Predict the structure.
Amino acid sequence: MTTRMKNPAYVLPEAMKGIGGLIKAIEASGLPAGVREFAGLRVSQINGCAACVHGHVEEARKSGESDERIHNVAAWREAPFYSDAERAALALAETATRLADRTGDGVPDPVWDDAADHFDERQLSGLILTIALTNLFNRINVTVREPAGTRW
């Protein structure tokens, strides 16, 4: 597969400033790095973004996550390797990513309540921004056919 064009965030450098600000805010939220990477990985798996799957796997490893936990994110409901807080984050990541698959309430109260039970407002804000930013990256990368292994 051939890349269609340079990443739009490089074509329009002002975009990188905004993205960088969001990343700094997420990192300062107190949300554990492993939770951030697992949420981003799950969102990227759903959206079929090879570049972001690759990146989140690398970052999860850097944050100390085991291959066993990384490789089972796609089957987190059945795998015994995740805490209740991580499960709540993964459920929110899936639900917020698949908004078009729902009728009525996009993020049902039980999914929200479970996440809110495990994360304070700052951490929850970091999680929501992680999910949203990953969806943004996925849509850019899939559209321009950004290959896995690309370094921004």
In short: Residues 130 and 148 are 19 Å apart (CA to CA). The helical segments are 8-11, 14-27, 33-47, 50-62, 67-71, 84-97, 109-118, 121-144. The chain has a mean pLDDT of 95. The longest helix spans residues 121-144.
